Structures are given as C-alpha cells and as structure tokens.
Amino acid sequence: MRCASGVLLCVWVLFADFSDTRLAMTSSAARLGAGCPAFSAVESYNSYDFAGSPLGLLEKEDAMVKLGLGTRLVKFGLRDDPDSISYKASSFYVPDLLIGKPGIVYAKLFYMPGPIAVVDAGREFSLESLRQDINVPVLRNYVDSVTGGPVSEIEFPLHRFGLTLAGGTENGIFRIGVTAEGFYGKEEMSGSSNTRVVMGFRNVGLHLGSQLHELVRIGFKGEASGYLDTLDDVESGYVNPHEDRYFYGQIPRFGGNIDFGSEGFPVLSNFEIEFGKNRFIYVTKVGGDGLWDVIDSAHIYGREDGNEDAVVSDSMSWNWQTMGTIATDVMMYHPAVRFGYWRNSIVQWQPTEANDNLFKYERERKDTSWEYSSFTFGIGGAASFKEYAKLSFEYTYSNLKLTYGDAWPDTSDRNESYPRIHIGLQGNIHALPFMNMPESIELFLCTGFLYLRENSRFNTWRSEEFSLVNRRISPMSQYYRYLYYDPAFGWVDENTVARFSVGLGGTFLDKLFAGNLFFAFPAKKIEDEKYRGFEFGVDLEYSVRANQPETNNKEK
C-alpha cells in the first residue's frame, strides 16, 4: 500500500473506532450492521449467529451443500454536493461454501477479496474541526500543509479467508468445532512510494459443546486474534523518514454460551459470556530530528529509541436475548428482549528494550489506568399475519461510560447514551392467492428503517463485510504514539445515522436456488456536516438438502 503520512490522519478519523480496546460484542453483528432485526428474528437464535460458535451450524443448517456468491457496495457524499464521493467501499465473496451432513458434521470455507475502501479525506472531514482536536502546534501546521484540500484517493484492498469445522456424535452429547480466519492487505495511494502492510488472524480457536437436553445446548471456547500493521514512510514532506509497527492481540479470549429452545418450542433464549486479555505493543523509528521528535517531547512517555509503552487490558462481556411465541388463529407474535454488558480495564506498562514480546513488559504505570463500560437493553418483537406478512420492531438503549485514572485529575468521567431503532416489514408475495405462483417458488418483498446514534467504539451502522478495516486497522499507525495512549470517547460520538432499505428475495425450484437483492439509502450527520449515501447488495445461493423435494411446477 502506498500512503502519505500526513493525509492519513484524516483517513484514520473516518475508519478507526477503537473496538480493539475491548472484546467485540458478537450478538448478531452482521444483522445489526445491515439494519435487520437483531434479537426479534427467530433465525438469529442459534450459537453461530449469536455467539460466533461453529457448533451452531449443526442446529442452524439443513443443507448438504450450500454455495453462495455475493457483493456489497456502499458510498457517501456531501448532501449538498451531488457529485462528491467522500467514502466508497465494496466487497464480494467467491465463494462461501458449506459442505456436510445436517446435525453431524459441517465444513465452511470462504474467500473475500475486499473490502476495497476509497476515501477522499479532504471532503469527509473539515480540516478546521480536525485541527481543534490536535493540541500539538507543530502537528497542526503539518496537517495544514499536507491536507490543505481534497486528497488523492486511498485504496485498501484486503483479502480475507477462513475455515470453519464443526462435528459431533449423532446424539449431540459431544461436539467439537474449529474456527480460523486470516487477512492480508496492502494500502495504496497514487504518487507515493510509501508502503504499509497489514496482516493477521482472527477468531482462531477451539470450541467444545454438548446437547444436554433436546432444549438445552452448551458450548465453551478458547480463541485468539492478532493484527500486525507496518509502515515505511519515506515521503513525508519536510518530516524525516519514519518507520513504525504495532501488534495488537486478544490473547487469550475464552468464554461459553447456552442455547435454550428448539423449533416449535414457545421460548427461545441465548446467553454468552467472554473474558479476554488485550495486548498492544508499538515501536517507531525516526530518521534524524524531525516532527516526530517534537511530538515525543510533548508526549509524557515518549521514547527516543522508539519503544513505546505497552497497553494491556482485561475485558469481560456478556449478552442475553430471549424470545417468546404467542399464536392465534390469524396472528403470531414474537415478543423479545435483550440485555448486554461489557467492561474493559486498561493500563500502560513501560516497554522492554526490544519491545517485541506481547507477554513481557517492564513496570506498570498505575496512574495511567482507565476503564470503559457499557450496558445495553433492548425490547422489541415481530408479528406475522398468517403467511402473508411480518412486521418487526426493536428499540435498543446503550450507554458508554469512560472512567479516567489518576493521570487525569482534572478530567471528569463521561457517560453518554446511544439509542437504536429498527422497523421492518416483509411481504410474502407468493402467498397472495391472486398471484397464482408455482408452489416451487417463494418471493419476498422487504422494507426497513434504521435509526441510531453511534460512537466509534461500538454501535456502528456499517455492515460486517467492512468491519475488519473500519473497526480493527488504523490507516495511520504512526499516530498511535500520540493518540492511542490518551483515553478518548470516540471520534464520532455525536454521529446520527438514518437508513431506509428495500429488497427483493426469493427461492426457486423448491429452495434449490435462492437470491436476494437490496438497495439502501443512508444519511448521516457528523457535527454540522450532512451526508447522504447509497448501498447495494446481491446474493446468489445454490443448496442441496438431504431430502430435497422433487421440483413441483404446478400452479396453485
């Protein structure tokens, strides 16, 4: 990847959301980002979608072979400038392949060459608001000189790949699963010979579980994730050449989950709990006297040898969701609630001489400790009118609290709230008598509305396909020496997002083939700037089931 270091400060504000300071809340992450119902959808009540456990595939899937292809596109521009594109990202997966025997064994493989993010940072964020957030004068001047106007496009192709295995005995008493995901990316910007490479592994772990009862399943896991970011900055204007690297890891992460209920039972419930140790080490190398030496002198813990403090934190999170079923002759109701909590306690340690060991540090800097915590409550439900239509509604309240340590005696703790509202409507076109459609075809028309106030540390609207770049990898790692060690509430803590979507989906030849197409029109407000966007997605799927019915083309 190629990137000019001065430009990257603006880009980092767009992408980074500090989620690497805690354990991710895995509860229906993809559905949340896409604006779909999270805890009021029956299909999300399994340990695969809720807790990321591969053992959930044994409950969720009924296909012997499933092959999926798809693509996503999202872009944003200023509302008052129809031709502006301040952020654009796309991704596709080729393939997403599932092979196995229902309830017994599954293997799942995916490859996703993306996302590819293109950003015009000069348009996305005003330089004036950026300068106000930077307290080092020489850094302000440097940002002014390098990003005095709209910048060149920056691309970040990221290759993601993964393998999931799950299997067990026929009676379900013993189950075992393995997950492993990796990624590699190289950032590029025209006109620069700088290089920046990111790579790592995600959710590599072992899962064990058991079907204790036809209504009760339990699971345990041990996992680890790691992210390596390296930069060779040889073109920094008047700033001397700069190199740096950082490694962040959640090593180890362990936890467990309980699933309650089964198909046809009037109550479904999922619970998960996770604990983890988050570790961050960082090294910088500056050639001669330059800007970064000035920043070091302003930073209380700057190091002449480039070995910065290690940052270590203890994380804990739990989530619980439950849904009931109330049926009448013409209606079916699914009331649902959700609760969640996470806490992350962070402290800095003096670095070792080499600063390349995640498990070895010098003395603890106890006055630098700080803590994030959050509580979430959600209430919602779905209502179905016979086989014709389904309406879903969810309201979720989350708070984010930041408690400062002794190093910030004059700084007050912060506590903010972040609501989320979802409304969705699905119409089953094939069920309408006057449509007279073949029995082998199902056709659905869906619309949805999503509103939320987001913080860059959690509760983002972006879909799961783009989360690895948006949430995990900073496009300007060299600025970590100044920004990472000061607790902040989040760069986008005042953002609001409203999103309207419409989609068409269906199954064909008795579910042998399936397809989905959606369009969405999000709008967001960042401080006083207003943006509007466009999203597009398409999915195609081929499935072979153990008892695939013969195709019936007779009309109703």
Q: Mind explaining what this structure looks like?
A:
The chain contains ten helices and 22 strands. The chain is mainly beta and 556 residues long. The chain has an 18-stranded antiparallel barrel. The chain is globular, with a radius of gyration of 24 Å. The N and C termini lie far apart (57 Å). The N terminus and C terminus are likely disordered.
Quick summary of this structure?
Helices cover 12% and strands 53% of the residues. With 556 residues, it is mainly beta.
Shape: globular
Helix content: 10-25%
Question: What summary fits the major beta sheet?
Answer: 18 strands, antiparallel, barrel
Strand content: over 45%
Count of individual beta strands = 22
Number of helices: 10
Question: Structural class of the helices, strands and pairings?
Answer: mainly beta
Runs in which pLDDT lies below 50 for 5 or more consecutive residues are 1-33, 120-152, 288-302, 467-482, 550-556
Q: How far apart are the first and last residues' alpha carbons, in Å?
A: 57 Å
| Mean pLDDT across all amino acids | 75
Q: Rg, please? A: 24 Å
Q: Which keywords apply here?
A:
12% helix; mainly beta; 18-stranded antiparallel β-barrel; disordered C terminus; 556 residues; disordered N terminus
Write the topology of this structure:
Blueprint (H helix, E strand, L loop, with lengths): L4 H11 L13 H6 L12 H5 L5 H4 L2 E16 L8 E15 L3 E9 L2 E4 L1 H4 L2 H6 L4 H10 L7 E2 L2 E11 L6 E12 L1 E2 L5 E19 L2 E18 L8 E19 L6 E20 L4 H8 L11 E15 L1 E2 L3 E19 L14 E22 L3 E15 L10 E15 L13 E13 L12 H6 L7 H4 L11 E14 L4 E14 L2 E17 L11
Antiparallel strand pairs: 1-2, 1-22, 2-3, 2-4, 3-6, 4-5, 5-8, 6-7, 7-9, 9-10, 10-11, 11-12, 12-13, 13-15, 14-15, 15-16, 16-17, 17-18, 18-19, 19-20, 20-21, 21-22
